[in-house]
Amino acid sequence: MSLFLTMCTFSLVMSITPGPVNLIIVNSGINNGLKKTFAFISGATIGFTLLLLLIGLGLNTFIAKQSSFFTYLSIGSSLFIIYIGYKIIKIKDNIDIYNNEEKTPYFYEGFLIQWLNPKAWIASISGVSLFSSSDFVFYSFILIYFFICYLSLIFWGYIGEKVSYLLKIREYLKYLNIIMGSLLILSAMYLFYIQFI
């Protein structure tokens, strides 16, 4: 029972704490509502779960032999997060916040961002090192993480949707999008900076 609680706690802490994916989900919840954000949430959850599974099956051993992999991952993730941040900043303010398809993040973006998200790699490698003592423990951990990750990301989308009621005035929404997009870009630039200092 204590192992189950440890797996649940680890999964919850790694899923619910703020990161680029959660920031995008909150912003999409604000701009599009939870229902339209669900495709991105699904992509992010499935993308992470697949990453976790492949690392557990030995992808990390292969990657450890590639000395420049994490450098390229850092560069790629920084560029992709900057791109998403730019998209958020450029969202046109619209009073009808739930009726603008150009703002809606896609399933493939959620899937891809997890593979380019340093937090997802750290969570996966740490989780595999902690919970791979047997096949049963490992696959139980993946299943637990899948459900907790899904619920955590849905929670962030729900929070965004509820905040949207306070931001019906388009000027507020415009400034929030600029702030959220800028935070994503700054976090990506920081990731890039720490890779090369």
From TrEMBL:
The membrane topology noted for this protein in its Swiss-Prot or TrEMBL record is: Multi-pass membrane protein
Q: Which domain of life is it from?
A: Bacteria
Please name the InterPro entries in this protein's record. Answer: LeuE-type
Record's Gene Ontology CC terms? plasma membrane
Write the record's keywords in alphabetical order, separated by commas: Cell membrane, Membrane, Transmembrane, Transmembrane helix
Keyword Coiled coil attached: no
Membrane-crossing ranges are 39-62, 69-89, 136-160, 172-194
Q: Name one Pfam family in it.
A: LysE
Q: Answer yes or no on keyword Cell membrane.
A: yes
Q: Which GO terms describe its biological process?
A: cysteine export across plasma membrane
Name assigned to this protein: Lysine transporter LysE
Species per Swiss-Prot/TrEMBL record: Halarcobacter bivalviorum
